[in-house]
Amino acid sequence: MTDGERTSSAFDSQALHQKYAAEKKKRLRGDGEGQYIDASGEFEAFSQDPFIKVPLQRDSVSKDIDVAVIGGGFGGLITAIKLRKAGINSFEIIDQAGDFGGTWYYNRYPGIRCDIESLIYLPYLEELGIKPKEHYAHGAEIYAHCQMLARHFDLYRQALLETKVTRISWDETLSRWIINTNRNDEIRARFITVSQGPLSKVKLPGIPGINKFIGKMFHSSRWDFDYTGGDSTGGLVNLGTKKVGIIGTGATAVQIIPIAADYAKHLYVFQRTPTAVDVRDNKPIDPEWFAELPNGWQKKRMDNFLAILSKVYQENDQVHDQWTDYWKRVVALGMDLKSKGSDEGPLAIMQRIDYAKMEELRTRIDETVNDRETAASLKPWYNYLCKRPLFSDNYLQAFNKPNVTLVDTDGVGVSEITEKGVVANGKEFDIDCLIFATGFDVAAAAYKVGGYDVIGRNGLSIDDKWSNNFQSVHGTQLNGFPNFHIVGGFYQGTTAFNFMHALDIQAEHAVDLIAKCVTGNIASMEVTQAAEEKWIAMMEEHHNAALNQYFEDCTPGFLNNEGDTESKPSFLGGNFGGGTIEYERIIRNWRQECIGTDTTTTQVNERR
């Protein structure tokens, strides 16, 4: 069956449109993103590090360095490695976690696995000569890879771990950033890079009574193995006598639920919105095949994946997974219609593929789940990309187990948490353990994630700078904040389903600019206000109206600000609309030309 033929599955597009709109309406809430609360103050325990058993003891540090790398996840690791490769060795990596890894350090919940192929997700595989075990790596393997990168590039000796940044301020006299920490450190750095990622700031549901429950409660990213037993691969033997509730059915819950179902006395899954779950079909990586890969294979494989997901036709699909399958269908139908003289727009083409794809996933539910009522409740009624597509070979099957109950709230959500359990659909469910698989504040800026203040030139704080609207150049640099680089900036920047690709692009951008300043004896580099205005104009020129319309029609979720696309753009709508490939080309050209050639773009000061 060809891609074109698969799009002709029988469905009533008008009826589906009406059904999607009705399901969206059920879930719209007046409080929008305000329905969630921060894991701070009285809820701070939900964000505390459960993996530091014996806190590190050390003296405070006072030193001058070239670069402070804030964040020890993949963004910080890639930045530090590129600094090392550029010959810039005067740097410190600062992170409040007990080790490198970022989201893979904190998220160790049972079943955790990456949904992007390991061969394109794990950085520097080729250089390290490492073969991942499977096409979709387990979280423990990814965390170990982060540690391996730190050891290989000798980063531990330049890391201040278990250290929380409290303030970053620009000293005009010194032309340096002063970094203060909770350990009374004072680091004076010429340059700053910040890389606290989107999967870091714990988000809790603001359910009435959340602080009343007397049983065990924790967020999935701070899993309590002392309570459950086992580790991220399973073995949750302590749950054998426990009634467990899990709130959430997104990317995290889809991985937790099958394993929790294997051990819990009873598992209640509280669902507001069903998720779209496709086949993962994970397999071990053939060592003989891997040994024959040619030099440069990883970059080519990453580029191939990005091109296909950017709707650029590729003769060969190297990854060949569910991600590329969807976008190849979109490209194939577009080419087919164009050859027939059709002027059907990209949104209409994408919608046709979308309806067909979602019909396939709903059919899969009917074929997998035994109970008809449960199967009906698990069916998602929205477009495929309204939520991050998920992949699992055992999630749907978990609902066939007698100890698993799906509590579908038909879009309303849990109404109350009591001392003994959870109230949903007017019924109280007694439970012993409540797990919040409610994700993260993915739209939070890095300084919000890290919980520190950033004060730039003339006492200007980032909060004040962005009080009216977000202004930047490329989503990575700011007027009033010299020598300051964001790595992982998606607002006015870029992102990608394979986030490693976006991190690599922006880390290279930051390090290349830092290297230009170091070798050119330049004390500070700062984008001008005119440059910000120019980039905003370019953002408007490349505005993707079709993408915004797509997310405006979506069921509420983090990708469309819980249905509020008027007060601010959707998660992806706030990106550079020309796509990641064009974004990379633009910033590469910009940094090659910026210093000393375009005073409307940068201000540079000769080192005193």
Protein traits:
5-stranded parallel β-sheet, globular, 8-stranded mixed β-sheet, single chain, 608 residues, disordered N terminus, alpha/beta
Quick synopsis:
With 608 residues, the protein is α/β, with parallel strands linked by helices. It contains 21 helices and 22 strands.
Tell me what the structure shows.
The chain is α/β, with parallel strands linked by helices and 608 residues long. Helices cover 34% and strands 16% of the residues. The protein has 21 helices and 22 strands. Strands 2, 3, 4, 5, 6, 7, 19 and 20 form an eight-stranded mixed beta sheet that branches. Strands 9-18-10-11-14 form a five-stranded parallel beta sheet, with helices on one face. A three-stranded antiparallel beta sheet has the order 15-16-17, with no helix packed on it. A hairpin with a 4-residue loop joins β6 and β7. α3 runs parallel beside α18. The radius of gyration is 24 Å and the shape is globular. The N terminus is likely disordered.
How is the main sheet built?
Answer: 8 strands, mixed
Structural class: alpha/beta
Number of helices: 21
Mean pLDDT: 91
- Uncertain stretches of 5 or more adjacent residues: 1-5, 596-601
Radius of gyration: 24 Å
Percent of residues in helices: 25-40%
Number of strands: 22
The separation of the N and C termini measures: 68 Å
Q: State which percent range the strand residues make up.
A: 15-25%
What form results from the Cα inertia axes?
globular
